[in-house]
Amino acid sequence: MGLGRVPVIAARILRECDKAGLLGEHLMIVGTNAMFAYEVAAGVQTQSGLVASGDIDLLYDARRHLSLALEDVHVTGLIGLLRTVDTSFVPVRPGSFRAANRDGYLVDLIRPEAKDVMRDRSKSALTDLPEDLQGAAIFGLGWLVNSPKMDVVAIDERGFPVRMVVIDPRAFALHKAWLSRREDREPVKAKRDFEQAQAAAIIATRYLRRPLDGPELAALPTSLRDLAPKIIDAIADDAKNGVKPNW
After folding, report:
1. 3-state DSSP of 174-200
2. Exposure b/e, 8-38, CB count within 10 A at least 16 = b
3. Its pTM surpasses 0.85
4. Which is nearest to 63 in space by CA: 148, 130, 141?
5. Looking at the domain assignment, is residue 247 inside a domain?
6. Are 136 and 110 within 8 A, CB to CB?
């Protein structure tokens, strides 16, 4: 039936994060892999090019303190957790936000940038271990940690279930549309960003009946919420020109 969509390596990492009590509490999935969760929620499949990815982005909500009950995490850190999946995972350099395995699969730990960068005292890593990944502070991610969340069970490429905690597809769509308009965004990435924004918007509005201007998105700034009509207009133009989603 083609239901197994989540890459095996991503699914194994998410299961370990879930088993450790991190998923949904301290970490959630953002970026391309979130599309798999939206597909499941709506019962659709997007174009394979929109979900192809050689990495997974884990958004760290540093506002939550790690429970002392999470003994394994305190002892080994996130990098230790990744090594239970694949022993070849190592930080790409000391103090990096990124780990890679022998096959080149990347795991990025990212976090919201503080309002006052010069006085940023937010915790950047899950633990104080010197080898652990240090979350990269990125502008705009604070909007996402304050957005509604979605918790679904998807199927990986081997047919096994995997729990996924992602941001609301409407927040995803608006954020991706905003990313696509940034001057520092690479053109190829910007094009894909907007295509993903459209796909997530269609899933949210047409299949999940969640409007892009819903009051639940009040945490998002006006600059993002004002992009909703542009996404809707682009979807309408594609339909008018005979461009149909490949699901």
Report:
1. HHHHHHHCCCCCCHHHHHHHHHHHHHH
2. ebbbbbbbbbbebebbbbbbbbbbbbbbbbb
3. yes
4. 141
5. no
6. yes
- Taking the alpha carbons of 13, 15, 18, 24 in that order, is the dihedral positive or negative? positive
Residues 149 and 179 in one domain: no
Domain with 207, as residue range(s), is 168-242
> Whole-angstrom Cα distance, residue 131 to residue 137?
18
Length of the chain: 247
222 burial level (CB within 10 Å; 0-12, 13-18, 19+): exposed
CB atoms within 10 A of CB 89: 23
Residues 202/245, Cβ–Cβ less than 8 Å: yes
Q: What is the pLDDT of residues 180-237, one digit of tens each?
A: 999 999 999 999 999 999 999 999 999 999 999 999 998 899 999 999 999 999 998 8
